[in-house]
């Protein structure tokens, strides 16, 4: 390399570093300007946000919770967060989002909504007891705690949180052959549901806390884990068919954590009533989930893993048996390694398996297609406020029908 080239590289690097420092300082000032507090510091409110722009290229039908058709899309999203404290005991939080639907391209004309709003009371001076009410993410598993775009090493969610199954929440299959035939057609994302729909911001109350090396959380909500976002708000689906979930965790060391989760609740929507057999009710059919999770951190390496098993009680409207238990299990193992101070790489392996149900002809057959997916990502955090990620994913399902076998995605996030 010539002396001139060395000089050019040094000047470009110095200019980029100065620009990054200037951006960090400017956004630090914005962040401080968006906070207000009383003179005695007892009351405080802070407004912050994330501005995301994502781009996707898919080699065939969009997989998982990417809606619409076509091989490419751009998905902008603005998330605003309001944190409010009233003394050491009371806390409030609101998450507002402006985008094209909760999932990419769900609403092409745009959408604005409150994803979360909650109030929390901590009656004691230590963290052993907290009471929370409102609309907020599920306590199940360990992915939800790191699901926002700034924290998640990837652009999408692990397979258990987004892989569409052939269980529908608004219409009972007319027969067992009809239910089994669904595995041979592309996902109907407006009719079917995954095991867990993303972070599951359902409405209700929770109690949680920490006792030494142990932590606990339990919630009563208006809908189970598979419920689509439209029904998360209590104004759309109230508590006439409540769901429950709990998680118990143990952290023997600061770098190691394990947990176990359970959830159960009726998953059918009111529209399904008209398709049920006489004597059946939408509240009779439940989704139950059990799970285990673990995490580990050592120097520049972070590891996470989850296993979830779910049973859907599926009504069969026109034939015997009048219901079947549709079982599925999924897991993922995920790691992130900090290559340099600003650069990280991530790798995730996902699999989902489906159990057998009667086929109506005296035998049994798997009710959906087993799948595996590998996700790779490279992220670059330019400073305290700017991050970009590039992801490649390869998905394979059992059989000839494939959906989004190859996916390339990019994301730029501005934090303020």
Describe the structure.
The chain has 416 residues and is mostly beta strands. The chain has two domains: 1-33; 38-415, Beta Barrel (Porin), CATH 2.40.160.10. The chain is built from two helices and 21 strands. The protein has helices at 3-33, 176-181; strands at 35-37, 43-58, 72-86, 90-99, 111-121, 130-135, 164-168, 192-194, 203-211, 214-221, 243-253, 256-266, 286-298, 301-315, 323-338, 343-354, 356-358, 364-366, 371-381, 386-397, 406-415. The strands form three sheets. The chain has a 16-stranded antiparallel barrel. A two-stranded antiparallel sheet has the order 7-8. Strands 17-18 form a two-stranded antiparallel sheet. Residues 8-16 have low confidence and may be disordered.
């Amino acid at each position: 390399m010539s002396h001139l080239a060395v000089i050019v590289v040094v000047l470009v690097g110095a200019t980029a570093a100065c620009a990054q420092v200037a951006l960090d300082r400017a956004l630090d000032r914005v962040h401080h300007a968006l906070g207000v507090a009383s003179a005695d510091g007892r009351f405080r409110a802070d407004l912050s946000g994330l501005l995301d722009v994502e781009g996707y290229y898919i080699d065939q039908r969009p997989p998982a919770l990417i809606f619409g058709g076509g091989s490419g899309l751009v998905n902008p999203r603005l998330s605003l967060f309001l944190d409010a404290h009233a003394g050491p005991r009371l806390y409030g939080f609101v998450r507002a989002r402006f985008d094209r639907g909760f999932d990419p391209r769900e609403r092409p004309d745009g959408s604005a909504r409150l994803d979360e709003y909650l109030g929390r009371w901590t009656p004691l001076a230590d963290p052993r007891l907290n009471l929370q009410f409102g609309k907020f993410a599920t306590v199940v598993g360990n992915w939800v705690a790191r699901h926002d775009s700034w924290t998640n090493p990837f652009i999408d969610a692990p397979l258990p949180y987004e892989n569409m199954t052939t269980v529908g929440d608004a219409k009972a299959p007319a027969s067992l052959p009809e239910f089994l035939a669904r595995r041979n057609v592309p996902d109907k994302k407006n009719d079917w549901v995954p095991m867990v729909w993303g972070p599951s911001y359902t409405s209700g109350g929770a109690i949680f806390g920490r006792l030494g090396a142990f932590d606990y959380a339990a919630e009563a909500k208006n809908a189970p884990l598979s419920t689509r976002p439209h029904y998360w708000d209590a104004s759309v689906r109230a508590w006439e068919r409540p769901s429950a979930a709990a998680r118990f965790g143990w952290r023997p060391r600061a770098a190691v954590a394990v947990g176990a989760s359970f959830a159960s609740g009726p998953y059918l929507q009111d529209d399904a009533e008209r398709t049920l057999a006489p004597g059946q009710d939408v509240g009779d059919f439940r989704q139950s989930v059990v799970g285990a999770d673990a995490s580990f951190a050592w120097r520049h390496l972070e590891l996470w893993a989850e296993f979830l098993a779910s049973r859907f009680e599926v009504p069969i409207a026109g034939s015997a048996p009048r219901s079947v238990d549709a079982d599925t299990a999924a897991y993922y193992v995920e790691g992130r390694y900090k290559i340099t101070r600003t650069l990280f790489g991530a790798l995730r392996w996902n699999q989902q398996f489906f159990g057998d149900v009667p086929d109506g002809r005296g035998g049994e057959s798997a009710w959906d297609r087993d799948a595996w997916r590998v996700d790779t990502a490279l992220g670059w955090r330019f400073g305290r406020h700017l991050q970009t990620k590039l992801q490649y994913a390869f998905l394979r399902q059992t059989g000839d029908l494939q959906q989004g076998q190859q996916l390339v995605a990019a994301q730029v996030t501005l934090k303020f």
